[in-house]
Design brief:
By secondary structure, the protein is α/β, with parallel strands linked by helices. A six-stranded parallel sheet has the order 2-1-3-4-5-6, with helices on both faces. The termini are far apart. Helices cover 32% and strands 23% of the residues. Strand 14, helix 12 and strand 15 form a beta-alpha-beta unit. The chain has four domains: 121 residues, Rossmann fold, CATH 3.40.50.12160; 123 residues, Transcription Regulator spoIIAA (2-Layer Sandwich); 118 residues, Transcription Regulator spoIIAA; 54 residues, OB fold (Dihydrolipoamide Acetyltransferase, E2P) (Beta Barrel), CATH 2.40.50. The chain is globular and about 60 Å long. The protein binds iron/sulfur cluster. Iron/sulfur cluster binds next to helix 6.
């Protein structure tokens, strides 16, 4: 048996990298299997953004080994980079590889067999300049691909371990991004999502910029949709917004981390903008692209976030004309300044605040979708769901589900937007009777 099961914890960038690892296994003659099915190798690409992510990684190793006790278990990624010994102490782990080592797996590992003692290979990330591949096929329906264009981060947000796990900011040269984007188009992908740790920082050290990359990607024949996975508000320039407005390929959708609506907390977080700057970005987007969908990252329960600071965030979010929030409950991370800050918020209260903002997010999603009720928008249809519907996203990121045939997977089809059903809007393709 030469089967490898791959599993990703964490962000889109991790998914893209796991996929690149999978491609390498395939080139070496291995078959890719589902985690939980029979496989003799298990690769887990870990995340350490919160304590939950660490816990999830440990649970997955244990679960995978219950099904395949003889499988060779390799754990790599950010958690492995920062806490190799902790991972090596999990029963059944055979290899621990750091963030960069995952791309040299075949050079490092001689035999994919169980080891008496876990083998740990974790390099010094601070000196890391290599980039590593590349892109992720989100599904076999050849719909969206996540293309890694940037890695690492030079910011020093006080709560974040990502720069420790992934090193300094670095970018893939434009020529290589173009080459990979061309390959994705040749493989019939319809949408390319540019991804990185701090994607807006793309090209800064090479005398280039994200805006220049986007312009160059417009020259690649056949790209139908382009999206930026996430961009810091201070890096979202007027030029990028104008380019998006003028482009028929750039999707009118931005995901912009806010983290807090309180300037006191933003300052403690060492974020590079204040709430007014953020509001200005949202207003500029909507003045230029009125139907744009905007997603927001928020962290609740940061040290020093008293009732007043939390309500400042809640009210700021309440009044912000955006589509949805991704809410993270603050958790203390080792080797971060925030861990030492005064004003620890009790865990129960952090959870209560998380629930409040998530509820507000659900309301926003419904209100945003309702603004487009009965209008016609193009949807890229993705995989079929267990409930038999096929889901996809509009250009401005409304999730749509239709009762449809599998043939529509991977196609961009106009639909008439129906009513919001809590998770998505139920619609019918425009070609059918409403
Ligand atoms: S911008 Fe801040 S939160 Fe984002 S990866 Fe860099 S340090 Fe972490």
């Amino acid at each position: 048996m030469n089967k490898v099961a791959l599993h990703t914890v964490g962000c889109k960038l991790n998914y893209a990298e796991t996929s690149a690892v999978g491609e390498r296994f395939k080139r070496e003659g291995f078959e890719i299997a589902e985690l939980g099915s029979d496989s003799n190798i298990i690769v887990i690409n870990s995340c350490t953004v919160t304590e939950n992510a660490n816990r999830e990684c440990r649970q997955i190793v244990r679960r995978a080994l219950r099904k395949n006790p003889e499988a060779c278990v390799i754990v790599t990624g950010c958690y492995a980079q920062l806490k190799p010994e902790e991972i090596a102490s999990i029963d059944g782990v055979d290899y621990v590889l750091g963030s960069s080592e995952k791309f040299r797996l075949f050079e490092i590992i001689d035999s994919f067999t169980k080891q008496e003692v876990p083998q740990v290979t974790v390099g010094e990330i601070a000196h890391e300049t290599s980039f590593g591949p590349a892109f992720n096929r989100e599904s076999d329906a050849r719909t969206r691909a996540f293309l890694k264009v940037q890695d690492g981060c030079d910011y020093n947000c006080s709560f974040c371990t990502i720069p420790l796990a992934r090193g300094a900011s670095r970018s893939q040269p434009i020529s290589e991004v173009i080459q990979q984007a061309t390959e994705l188009v040749e493989r019939s992908y319809k949408e390319i999502v540019l991804t990185g740790v701090n994607t807006g920082d793309y090209g800064r050290k090479n005398g280039s910029s994200l805006c220049e990359l986007l312009l160059r990607l417009h020259d690649v024949n056949g790209i139908q949709r382009l999206r930026i996975s996430s961009i810091e508000p201070n890096l979202l320039t007027d030029e990028i917004i104008k380019l998006t407005a003028a482009s028929d390929r750039m999707m009118p959708h931005f995901h912009i981390p806010l983290q807090s609506g309180s300037d006191t907390i933003l300052s403690k977080m060492r974020r590079r903008y204040r709430s007014e700057d953020y509001r200005n970005r949202v207003e500029t987007i909507l003045e230029t692209i009125p139907d744009a969908g905007i997603g927001v990252d928020v962290i609740v329960g940061f040290p020093g976030e008293g009732k007043e600071e939390f309500m400042a965030t809640y009210e700021f979010l309440h009044d912000l004309p955006v589509q949805y929030f991704h809410v993270f409950t603050y958790s203390e991370r080792e080797k971060t300044p925030a861990r030492e800050f005064a004003g620890c918020v009790p865990v129960k209260e952090r959870r209560r605040r998380t629930r409040m903002v998530r509820t507000l997010s659900e309301k926003k999603k419904g209100e945003f979708a309702a603004c487009f009720f009965d209008s016609v928008r193009a949807v890229l249809f993705e995989a079929k769901r267990v409930d038999g519907t096929i889901q996809g996203y509009t250009d401005n990121y409304i999730r749509v589900s239709v009762e449809g045939k599998e043939e529509i997977q991977g196609q961009i089809i106009d639909v008439r937007i129906g009513e919001w059903q809590g998770e998505s809007v139920r619609s019918v393709p425009f070609t059918q009777t409403v």
